[in-house]
Every structure is written in structure tokens, then in C-alpha cells.
Amino acid sequence: MASTEIYPLLPLWTWVLTAFILFVVSFFILVHFRGQGSGWITTKPGKLVAMFEFLLSIVFLVVTYFALTVIGAVLFGIPIVLAMLVGLYNFLTIRSKTKKGGRES
Description:
By secondary structure, this protein is mainly alpha-helical. The protein has a domain at 44-105. The protein is 73% helix and 5% strand. The protein is built from 4 helices and 2 strands, in the order ββαααα. Strands 1-2 form a two-stranded antiparallel ribbon. A hairpin with a 2-residue loop joins strand 1 and strand 2. Helix 1 (12-32) runs antiparallel to helix 3 (45-69) and helix 3 runs antiparallel to helix 4 (74-100).
């Protein structure tokens, strides 16, 4: 039987799911900041860091799923899940934090 794996440890569907989620998130970010002008990344570095954390959390989610189900590495998965939740919290609250500080134009 032919193997459907890109890398021996991760099945093909995890790579497809990760690529699809990254595409959807990137598309949402591009549409959301479409009218902001060309300098929105340099003027709002906090949002760029938050976007990067969020994209990394999606990759960590796939790795964590693999670690918990295939090799049963609970001790490996728990810190990654915590890091993912912290990154997601920072991404979701970055806008309200900048508004409260009065730094958003």
C-alpha cells in the first residue's frame, strides 16, 4: 500500500488542515487590514507579533494533536497547549489593550 505521508510521523491530512487554516487566517488578516495603508505593519508592531503568535499556535496545535494521540507524550503536549492558549489570548486581546492605553489611532 502506498504511503500518504509527507513526513513519516505526520499524516497527510494534518498538513492539509494546517495549510488550510493558515490560508484562512492570512486571508482574514489581509481583508481586515485592506484599507489601512501600506504602513500598517510598521506602525502597529504589536499586531504583527500577535498575528505571528496566532499562526504559530495553529502549528503547535497540529503538533500537540500528533504528540497526544500518536506517541502519547502528555508531558510534551501540556506546555505546548499552554503556550498556544497564551498566544491565542494575546492575539484576541491586543486590540482592547491598545484601545485602553489610548495608543490606537
